[in-house]
Design brief:
three-stranded mixed sheet; 24% helix; alpha/beta
Length: 319
């Protein structure tokens, strides 16, 4: 296995961890599901399911929807020459909080430069997901990769909040994801060569920064501005953004995946965003990922890059 190398969000994606969904389990109720940013029907269904189905296996016909979406994404990754790793399937242990989904590989681990960071998820039900990545972490550690891990119970750092544009690293700070202690811990691990910039989320029901902002090129991103504190912190405030509306954000329209500096995977239903990207010279690959979006995740959430070609400021296109 090659060394970790991720210097930005858009260089050619060469190696990635992609989530899996062999079995899903219903969680207990969590306050984030009742936040007013979610539509009333979703809050009602979450309350009902957490009461009636807590800890039970999700029916296979639903699970297969997630499996199919992930398989479609895997095929695109392979077609573009990307090596794809998968977590090991796990099941909840009796002593763990109920619920399980292994689709969102982005959150437990994150690569920054040549360092692999093992974070800590704030929502207790999700912490078990790291067990499915233990074999991969062992292989990387054996390959002399630098691995650092959060070890304090009050430090939260989640991959969906961490956006790489070295020498800058933007980290979302919200109610249910990464916190300021996570930002400070990460700065200590990476040293003075990297500037870690906290980006406060303005809406408490949004879990991660990449649910409302993603970078897709040098000083270029996709943004739902009302979801973030105003003004944006420097130097993020100097970037150019393609702005999306509230509905597109709610459908995880910002949560795209750049395969290289000109190729990007976007949900097939976000036609206006696709057009905006094409007008800027992007090759757009539309893909249906609506079942994942129902759980507040999309392409970036499902993938944890561990190697992109080039370094900050120098990129190349995939084949």
């Amino acid at each position: 296995m090659t060394q970790i190398s991720v210097h930005n969000e858009w260089s050619c994606l060469e190696e990635v961890v992609l989530g899996i969904a062999p079995e899903l389990y219903f969680p207990a109720r969590h306050p984030i599901e009742l936040e007013p940013v979610h539509p009333w029907w979703r809050r009602a269904s979450a309350a009902m399911l957490s009461t009636l189905a807590k800890g039970r296996r999700v029916p296979a016909w639903i699970t297969q929807k997630y499996v199919a979406e992930l398989e479609s994404l895997r095929k695109i990754l392979l077609e573009h020459g990307c090596t794809v790793h998968r977590p090991v399937p796990i099941t909840p242990l009796a002593e763990e909080p109920p619920g399980l989904g292994q689709m969102f590989a982005r959150d437990p681990i994150m690569a920054v430069g040549d360092t692999l960071i093992v974070g800590q998820l704030q929502i207790g039900m999700r912490r078990k997901e790291r067990r499915g990545l233990d074999a991969l972490l062992s292989a990387l550690t054996g390959n002399h990769t630098r691995v650092v891990a959060v070890s304090s119970d009050d430090i939260f750092l989640e991959g969906g909040d961490v956006i790489v544009d070295l020498p800058y690293l933007y980290v979302g700070v919200g109610k249910y994801g990464s916190n300021l202690k996570g930002v400070e811990w990460l700065q200590r691990q990476l040293g003075a060569a990297v500037t870690v910039v906290p980006v406060p989320l303005a809406v408490s029901g949004i879990l991660h920064l990449d649910c409302c902002l993603t970078l897709i090129g040098p000083r270029l991103g996709i943004l739902h501005r009302e979801s973030l504190a105003n003004p944006l912190p420097p130097p993020l405030d100097t970037y150019e953004f393609i702005e999306v509306d509230a509905r597109t954000r709610q459908e995880l329209g910002t949560n795209v995946l750049a395969l290289d500096a000109r190729t990007i995977i976007v949900q097939s239903r976000h036609v206006h965003l696709q057009q905006s990207l094409r007008e800027r010279g992007f090759r757009v690959l539309p893909l249906n990922f609506s079942w994942h979006a129902r759980l507040d995740g999309a392409f970036r959430c499902a993938t944890a890059p561990i190697r992109r070609s080039g370094v900050s400021g120098r990129t190349r296109l995939c084949r």
